[in-house]
Amino acid sequence: MADDVNEEEGSAEAMLSSAPLTEEPVMLEEVYKELRAGIEKAVEALRRDLSKVRTGRAHAGMLDSIRVDYYGQPTPINQMTDGELIRLPIPPLTEERRKEMVKMTKKHGEESKVAVRKHRRDALEMIDTLDKDGDVPADDADRGKKKVEEMVADGVKQIEHVVEAKEKEILVV
């Protein structure tokens, strides 16, 4: 019976000694979670911004920012159609204007990359703080920093793909 008690104590000690190991990755997982959320927000903001960039084709999103006075209230024009037809003459984009749109698209892409880099800086600072406070071993902190860099690289690639797709859409005549 004494052996049974020692085994139970041993397993309890094993559980206690393993408890900090499960907490450390949880702290790093929180850092990763915040970084993922920041990257996703940056990509979504980029998509939203690029949806407003004209590509040469008419679409309902072009009217989102147009407001008209409707019974004393500024109302988006696309909510006022009431089944009626709204005709808007949209001239085709010139090559020069298309190039300007591509520059604007690249600018939005670069702003998104800057936002992702800001989130990277924040994540790395959080990992450094966890390392300095002793909440995370140095090896885990180094692995965490590498994972942050990989996540940021994936986010930047995602932004580049969105920008490239929009550029192709703009340049199609």
Summarize this structure briefly.
By secondary structure, this protein is mainly alpha-helical. The chain has three helices and two strands. It folds into two domains: 25-56 and 92-173, Topoisomerase I, Chain A, domain 4 (Orthogonal Bundle), CATH 1.10.132.20; 58-91, no CATH class.
Protein described:
The structure is a single chain. By secondary structure, this protein is mainly alpha-helical. It has two domains: 25-56 and 92-173, Ribosome-recycling factor (Topoisomerase I, Chain A, domain 4); 58-91, no CATH class. The chain is 71% helix and 5% strand. It is built from three helices and two strands. A hairpin with a 2-residue loop joins strand 1 (67-70) and strand 2 (73-76). Helix 1 runs antiparallel to helix 2, helix 1 (2-51) packs parallel to helix 3 and helix 2 packs antiparallel against helix 3. The model is unreliable at 1-24 (pLDDT under 50).
Q: Which features does this protein show?
A:
single chain; 173 residues; mainly alpha; Topoisomerase I, Chain A, domain 4; 2 domains; 3 helices; 2 strands; elongated; disordered N terminus
Report the top-level CATH class of the largest domain. Answer: Mainly Alpha
How would you characterize the largest beta sheet? 2 strands, antiparallel
Determine the CATH topology of the largest domain: Topoisomerase I, Chain A, domain 4
pLDDT average, as an integer? 82
Secondary-structure map:
Layout: H1 2-51, E1 67-70, E2 73-76, H2 95-132, H3 138-171
Antiparallel strand pairs: 1-2
Helix pairs in contact: 1-2, 1-3, 2-3
